[in-house]
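Much of our argument rests on the idea that a fold can be written as discrete symbols. Part of our work consisted of pairing the sequence of a single chain with a tokenised description of its backbone. The amino acid sequence and the backbone structure tokens for this protein are reproduced below.
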Amino acid sequence: MPALQPYLIEPIWEQFRALLPEHRETNHPLGCHRLRIPDRTVFEKLVQILVFGCAYERIADECCSATTLRRRRDEWIEAGVMAELRELALDAYDKLIGLKLSALAVDCCITKAPCGGEKAGRNPVDRGKQGIKRSTVVDAKGIPLGTVIAPANRHDSLLLAETLDTLEALGELPEQTSVHLDRGYDSRSTREKLRNRRLLAVISEKGKPTPLAATKRWIVERTNSWNNAHKKLV
């Protein structure tokens, strides 16, 4: 079963190919250099990995190894292709459907990192095991606008400024844009960060119980649940 039907994958590939940097072919002096796997092959397999949420080894075959998939993925990330693709996707969504930027929500989510990594750290809620914290900002409908990755033992409020900085790609925000946060962000420092960005603070107060449904924070909680359910996106 294909990950996407041909009428979907073809236009997506054409747009993606336009973003790829030109690759310079190199000839081995002994004539034994292995041919480069076509970008189209790697692209389709990466789409399968994202859609099916499976491991690279499950998609790899005699045409393309798991190592090649990871290497080409990293190559495209370093070239800025994925960042540009993100901006194009948000811009297209804004034109076709419309981003709701008048009300934003930010929150963090901790996930396991059993293999470690440069962003991993001791998880305070998992007996000190390796974990990663993901700070995400979403619009009023829960569309993720930007994400910052940090060790699991970083406090949520310390990631707020960097998370809001990811919104710069969207340009100027509407006037009176509000940012909805839980009580973990309730501090003078947080309000100053929002004030400096001309954003309105809607923060649950410490010591006062606030039902999740009574605020717009539930939107980012739902988005975090979606992301956690799709392992490859995490």
Summary: Residues 99-229 form a domain with the Nucleotidyltransferase; domain 5 fold (CATH 3.30.420.10).
